[in-house]
Structure formats: C-alpha cells, structure tokens
C-alpha cells in the first residue's frame, strides 16, 4: 500500500505539502513539535488513498516526508 | 648535482617567479600592475610548461580568492601584486589566515597612498606585518634585499606556508623587482604528493575504503566559545613563529649606533655604513629579513649592550615602531624617512647616521 | 526516479559496472518492505540527516536536496569540492556531505576557479544567493563563466538579501517592498531587476544555462533536469554550467510559505521566464571550446 511518513521532528509546518497532494489527504495536525511547529499529517483513515506520487516529498523543503509505493501502484513519478 | 653551479642574470621579479617554480608552485593567479608585471608575464609561460595553471584574473580580488581555492586543495599556489592590488586582496587573505590555508603572496611595494606612483616604497609595512585585512591574524613576512634573496625566500616560502598552514608574504619593492643581478638557482623541490593530506580538500570518500567525513575549510565560528578557541589557536601559532626570526647584522659588534633598515633600504644603508666605517665611525647595520616575526629579542639584546639605534625606512615611519617596542627597556630609536616618491641613495643616509651617532 | 543517464559514455562493460555501483550507491531508493512496498522517496545519501536552520517554507532546503540527489545519482560526492557563499546558505556544508571551502561574499566563482585549476579531476560547484552572485560577486561570476571554467554554479534567486534581513537585492522586483526600499523598488532610482540567466547565456565559456523554479512539483522536477544538465556541462568537459532557481523567502517577503509560492508563480516567473537559455550540446556546438589550461601555452605577443 502506498503511504507516506512525516518526520515530526523535521516538519516545520509550512503546509506546502498540503497543497500538492492530488488526493488532498495531508493536513495540519494539532500536534506541536519541539521546535514549536504544528506538524503535517495524513489521518490514518485516509492513508489508503495515497498514490505514492511523491509530490508532497518533492515540495517539502525539509525532507520531512518519506514515500512508500505499493506494489500494484506502479509508476507515477 | 655536483658543484656545477649555474648562474643566471635576472631581475628580482624574475627571481621570485623562478624561486616559486623551483619550489613546486603549480598555480599562479595574477593581475597586471606595475612594478610586478614581470612575475605574471614569466608565469604565464612557465606555469604551463611546468604542467601547472596560470590565470590572469579579472581583478586582484578574484586572484586572491582563486588562491584561497587552490590552497584549500593543498596545491602550492601563488599570487603577486603591488600596493593598490594588495589592498584589494585583503579580504581573501583574512579568510585564508582565518581558515588556515597555505599560500604565497608577493607584494612589490610601490608609492602610496592612493594611486601614488610606480616607484619603490616601504609604505605597506604596517599592512604587511599587522595582518592587513579585518580581524586578528598575522602573515609570515619575508623581506628580500637582493635578487638572490628574493629567489631563496620565495623558494622557502612555500615550505613555510605549508608547515604553518598560513599565507606567507614576500614584501619587496620596485628596486628589488627591477634590479638585474646574478643568482644561483637551487635544485628544484620534489613536492610530496601527500602534502597537506590530513586537511586538504580532494573530495570526501563517503563510503568504502578511506571513508571519512567531509571536510570544511572555513572561518565562520558561531558556536559558543568556538571563535575564541580559533583565535587562541592562531595566536599560539604566531607565538611559535618567534623562533624563525631571521636577520643580517653588519659591523654591529663594536658599533655605538646600529642602523635598522629592511629590504632595498637595508641594502643601501649597508653601503652607507660601510663608507662611514672606512671613515672610522662606529656604526653598524641590523637588517630584519623576517618582518613578522620581528627580531625583537635580538634588538633588545643590542640595546642592553648600550647601543643606540637609527631606523631608516622608505615611508613615514612604520618599522620604527617595532624597533622602539623592541628596545624600549634600554633605549629608543631615531628615525630617518625617505618619503615615498623620492629615491633613496647611500649619500643621503650618511648625514642622518652621523647626526644620530653624535647625539648622546 | 531519474537514473540511467548518469553513466558516462564509455565501453559497455564499464557502463554496466557503473550501473551496478549506482544501485549500491542509493540503497534507500531500492528499499522494499515486508509487504513489497518500495521506498521511492527519502533523504539523499549526500545530505546530512539533521534539521536545517532555514525558516519554514524556505526553498534553500529544496535546492540543497536537488544538489544532493544529483551528487548521489551521478556518483559525484567523493570527488566533489564545493565553494559555499555568504548568505542564508552559508552553512551549506552542514547539510551537504561534500568537502567545502567557505568563500568570501560573492567570490565563490573565483574560489571555485582556483579549486578546479588546482584539481581539474574534481567536480566543483558553487552555491550562491542573488545578493552574493548578482551584486557583490558580479565580476567573479561573469568572468568565471566567460573563461568557461569547468564548474557548475547553483544560483538561488529569492529577490532579497535573506541573511541580513531582507534588504533590496539586484533582483528585487519593481514595486517590491524591502527594508531598504520601503516604498517599493523604483526603476528610476534603483534600476530594473537583473536577469542573470539571460546575461550568463551570452558569455562565451558557458555550455549550459537555464532558469528553473522551486514553486511547484512540476517546476521542481524540471529544475532538477536543468541542474543535471548544468552538472553534466562540467562532467563531460563542455564548459561552464549555470542553473538559476527562483526561490521563496517567506520570512523577508513577510508572507506565509503558501503565499510565497504563489508569489513566485504569479510575479516572479512572468519577469524571470523559465527555460533553457543556452545548451551547447543541443546546439551541436560543443567541442569547439578550448579547455582552460590547454590554451594557456600561448602566452601571446608582448
Ligand atoms: C563583504 C561582505 N559584505 C556584506 C556582508 C553581509 N552579508 C551577509 S549575507 C549577505 C546577503 C546575502 O544575500 P543573498 O546572497 O541574496 O543570499 P540569501 O541570504 O538571500 O540566500 C550580506 C550582504 C558580508 N558577509 N561580507
Ligand atoms: S505521495 Fe502523493 S498521494 Fe501520497 S500523500 Fe504524498 S502527495 Fe498525497
Ligand atoms: S512540506 Fe514538509 S515541512 Fe512543510 S508541512 Fe509538509 S511535511 Fe512539514
Ligand atoms: S530568511 Fe529567507 S532565505 Fe533565509 S532562511 Fe529564512 S526564508 Fe530562507
Ligand atoms: Mg537572496
């Protein structure tokens, strides 16, 4: 299953990732990290919608996102 | 090479270029300015023949920064200029000193301030010996008084620069640069290909054999205490240079008055001293060859013996401050200045030397 | 992700070997978990795993990552020497695992010239802001480009002096307010914003010159392709490689990161058009240039 992980330590809450997700599953959480930023998240229920396109990771200025692509999801990037 | 000593008849500027070549200099970065043009002109051909690189930079600013780049890679590199160009090089020299990059820099001092003239001068003594750019740092400063010394000092400057990871400055002037004299060249140096292996930048193997962390050559230190630590380290290095002082003495043993002069003026003053000795005057010469470190202990010793001093220099009085600091416990130094713009001659020196000798 | 193109033209056997090495070089990209899912995006090897000091939404982070990805993909890290510059990216060496010399403000192209002349077999790049490159360092960038130094310049244009607090840069847009043009940049007083990619493309030694942007996923991917070409201009010995990147500085633009990205799209790109400004390889004119050093023997008549 395609999915992403957001490093809550590295996320600076810029929200650029939220704009580029084709299935709009990324949002700002209510969690504040040690640097005082409200980190981005994908609600667990929505993760299944992730296409593994890596758009979010591409635009993330802080390399906070890792992207896993499911076996069947084949090419996208 | 047995004792078949080759003799060459060259200008001081050429001697400097030849000394650099023989010392294994592989990159030269220059910019035209009188009276040092013979150096880049010579190097434009010689560097390429020696398998090195010559770049006529877009400015002295660029040339000095190219030197920073090449030196950071552990390559023997050099730039040369004259006073106005030296002003432009200072920022990069400060970076080199701050980030401990070895390099050889030549200043064929001309008259200033401003555009001044193209004649000889020692007006850059302060700039040379006090660092020259921003921040606390020092260069090793060597002052030749002949073509042979210009050759030898340049040859040695590369070893000194690498041994101390610091820029070394050769401070000459239009007289040294333009005068043609015989020199005896040395056997070319075989530079160790591993020179600087523990700090130079050649690309960081991030994995596999020889893996190491990437290296940074920098002068920015923002962490708590970091810059103070770096300054202490640099100061310890400069202190350790003190044992490298070099100087020439002539007829000082029984002298009542010691003339202190460096470079071309030191040589001219020597003639004046010689002629006064012929007239029975008890005068001698002390000629610092290293301007930094300055031979303060040696001068202090002479002062303790009761000798008096006259500093002669081709500026408005700069080295005299170092002489006075050296002898201050026991005496002082008189000063005779040749104003930049005027040409010095031994005849001009005799009267002031006699005057200083006569004063009690 | 892009690959394949990295193998230099060589005997097929050598190329195959390179490909094997490449696979090993980026193991993370090849990671597969228990369920067969593949890790398709992670931090490049050449990038240090630490938080940056950049503001939220600052595009220096993206530009760094693109450089690091290419160092990985082209297997250049262990022969790279970088010349960092003065600006917010002064700590480049805290994030990119390449041997680095810290250069005085604007002088990185001269420092890189010295590096490349001293070590012609190394990959040498500079990373410079717009104040650094297009103002104080104008002479150095022009002449390094004109000499055709075999170096690559990564130029991050965010239309302000970021590090010093948002003063006017030569690239500041007309009407843009900064701390030193509080009423907005005025063409009559301060001149028009400088378009560096257009200027650099005119110079003789340049093999590749392009402008990309970091405001959208599509543009970032395109920018990386340009950057690869700017790297290849050097690795293939063609000449000087230049890539300008339009970048956001939300802090000094006094905007949210989201609004800053929109400003790039709406205001910067129309003034600074994206695209390739010079590509010797595509023009079929490469090879006509003389390598620095090779020409040096002719001292010329005095
Ligand atoms: C000789 C010199 N002048 C001025 C400065 C101060 N200074 C530091 S960074 C900077 C501007 C950097 O702006 P830019 O190149 O656009 O980089 P950014 O921070 O925007 O990425 C200036 C003027 C300096 N360090 N050295
Ligand atoms: S990989 Fe693509 S689909 Fe998945 S969260 Fe990121 S942007 Fe959305
Ligand atoms: S783009 Fe990166 S830093 Fe910005 S909110 Fe998303 S995960 Fe966080
Ligand atoms: S001031 Fe601007 S350029 Fe500097 S880190 Fe912040 S956003 Fe980036
Ligand atoms: Mg900027």
Give short descriptive properties of this protein:
A: 77 residues, Alpha-Beta Plaits, 2 helices, 4 strands, C: 302 residues, alpha/beta, Rossmann fold, seven-stranded mixed sheet, 37% helix, globular, disordered N terminus, binds thiamine diphosphate
Can you walk through the features of this model?
The complex is a heterotrimer of chains A (77), B (360) and C (302). With 77 residues, chain A is α+β, with helices and mostly antiparallel strands. Chain A has a single domain, classed as Alpha-Beta Plaits, CATH 3.30.70. Helices cover 13% and strands 25% of the residues of chain A. The longest helix of chain A has 5 residues, at 16-20. The mean pLDDT of chain A is 93. Chain B is of the alpha/beta class. Chain B has helices spanning 12-22, 38-49, 60-72, 83-98, 125-129, 147-164, 174-178, 226-240, 263-278, 296-304, 319-327, 346-358, and strands spanning 8-11, 27-30, 53-56, 77-81, 103-109, 140-142, 167-173, 180-183, 216-217, 247-250, 257-260, 283-288, 290-292, 308-313, 333-337. In chain B, the strands form three sheets. Chain B has a seven-stranded mixed beta sheet with strand order 3-2-4-5-7-6-13, with helices on both faces. The longest helix of chain B has 18 residues, at 147-164. The termini of chain B are far apart. By secondary structure, chain C is α/β, with parallel strands linked by helices. Chain C has one domain (60-283): Thiamin diphosphate (ThDP)-binding fold, Pyr/PP domains (Rossmann fold). Chain C contains twelve helices and ten strands. Chain C has helices at 12-25, 60-73, 92-95, 108-118, 130-136, 138-147, 187-190, 196-201, 217-235, 250-253, 257-271, 280-283, and strands at residues 38-41, 80-84, 99-102, 123-129, 152-157, 160-161, 167-168, 206-213, 240-246, 275-279. The longest helix of chain C is centred in the C-terminal third of the chain and has 19 residues, at 217-235. Chains A and C meet through helix 1, helix 2 and strand 4 of A and strand 1, helix 2, helix 9 and helix 11 of C.
């Amino acid at each position: 299953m395609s999915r992403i992980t957001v490093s809550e330590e590295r996320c600076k809450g810029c929200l650029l990732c939220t704009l580029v997700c084709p299935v709009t599953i990324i949002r700002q959480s209510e969690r504040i990290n040690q640097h005082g930023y409200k980190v981005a998240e994908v609600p667990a229920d929505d993760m299944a919608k992730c296409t593994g396109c890596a758009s979010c990771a591409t635009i993330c200025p802080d390399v906070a996102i890792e992207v896993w692509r499911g076996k069947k999801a084949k090419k996208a990037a | 090479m047995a004792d078949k000593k080759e003799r060459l008849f060259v200008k001081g500027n050429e001697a400097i270029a030849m000394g650099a070549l023989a010392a294994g200099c592989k990159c030269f970065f220059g910019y035209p300015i009188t009276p040092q043009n013979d150096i880049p002109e010579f190097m434009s051909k010689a560097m390429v023949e020696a398998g090195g690189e010559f770049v006529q930079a877009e400015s002295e600013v660029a040339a000095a920064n190219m030197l920073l780049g090449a030196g950071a890679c552990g390559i023997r590199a050099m730039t040369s200029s004259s006073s106005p160009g030296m002003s432009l090089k200072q920022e990069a020299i400060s970076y080199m000193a701050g980030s401990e990059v070895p390099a050889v820099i030549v200043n064929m001092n001309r008259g200033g301030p401003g555009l001044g003239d193209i004649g000889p001068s020692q007006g850059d003594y302060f700039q040379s010996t006090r660092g020259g750019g921003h921040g606390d740092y020092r260069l090793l400063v060597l002052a030749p008084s002949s073509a042979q010394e210009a050759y030898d000092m340049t040859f040695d400057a590369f070893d000194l620069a690498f041994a101390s990871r610091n820029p070394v400055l050769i401070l000459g002037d239009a007289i040294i640069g333009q005068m043609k004299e015989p020199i005896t060249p040395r056997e070319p140096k075989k530079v160790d290909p591993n020179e600087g292996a523990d700090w130079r930048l050649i690309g960081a193997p991030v994995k596999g054999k020889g893996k190491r962390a990437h290296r940074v050559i920098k002068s920015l230190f923002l962490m708590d205490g970091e810059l103070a630590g770096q300054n202490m380290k640099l100061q310890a290095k400069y202190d350790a240079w003190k044992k490298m002082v070099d100087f020439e003495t002539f007829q000082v043993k029984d002298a009542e008055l010691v003339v202190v002069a460096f470079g071309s003026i030191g040589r001219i003053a020597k003639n004046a001293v010689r002629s006064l000795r012929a007239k029975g005057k008890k005068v001698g010469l002390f000629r610092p060859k290293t301007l930094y470190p300055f031979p303060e202990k040696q001068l202090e010793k002479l002062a303790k013996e009761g000798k008096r001093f006259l500093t002669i220099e081709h500026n408005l009085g700069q080295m005299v401050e170092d002489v006075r600091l050296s002898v201050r416990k026991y005496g002082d130094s008189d000063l005779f200045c040749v104003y930049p713009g005027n040409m010095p001659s031994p005849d001009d020196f005799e009267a002031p030397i006699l005057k200083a000798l006569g004063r009690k | 992700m892009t690959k394949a193109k990295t193998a230099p033209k060589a005997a097929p056997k050598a190329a195959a070997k390179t490909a094997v090495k490449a696979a090993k070089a980026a193991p993370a990209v090849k990671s597969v978990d228990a369920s067969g899912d593949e890790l398709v995006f992670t931090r490049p090897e050449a990038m240090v795993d630490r938080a940056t000091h950049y503001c939220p939404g600052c595009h220096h982070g993206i530009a760094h990552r693109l450089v690091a990805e290419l160092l990985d993909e082209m297997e250049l890290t262990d022969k790279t020497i970088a010349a960092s510059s003065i600006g917010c990216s002064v700590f480049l060496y805290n994030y990119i695992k390449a041997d680095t010399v810290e250069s005085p403000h604007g002088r990185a192209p001269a420092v890189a010239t010295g590096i490349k002349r001293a070590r012609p077999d190394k990959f040498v790049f500079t990373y410079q802001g717009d104040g650094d490159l297009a103002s104080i360092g104008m002479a150095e960038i022009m002449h390094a480009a004109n000499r055709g130094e075999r170096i690559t310049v990564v130029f991050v244009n965010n239309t302000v002096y970021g590090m010093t607090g948002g003063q006017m840069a030569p690239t500041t847009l007309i009407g843009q307010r900064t701390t030193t043009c509080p009423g907005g940049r005025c063409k009559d007083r301060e001149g028009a914003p400088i378009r560096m990619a257009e200027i650099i493309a005119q110079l003789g030694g340049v093999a590749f010159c392009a402008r990309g942007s970091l405001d959208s996923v599509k543009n970032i991917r395109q920018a990386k392709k340009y950057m690869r070409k700017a790297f290849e201009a050097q690795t293939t010995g063609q000449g000087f490689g230049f890539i300008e990147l339009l970048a956001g500085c939300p802090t000094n633009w006094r905007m949210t990161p989201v609004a800053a990205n929109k400003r790039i799209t709406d205001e910067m790109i129309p003034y600074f058009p994206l695209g390739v400004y010079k590509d010797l390889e595509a023009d079929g004119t490469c090879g006509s240039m003389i390598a620095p050093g090779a020409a040096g023997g002719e001292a010329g008549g005095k």
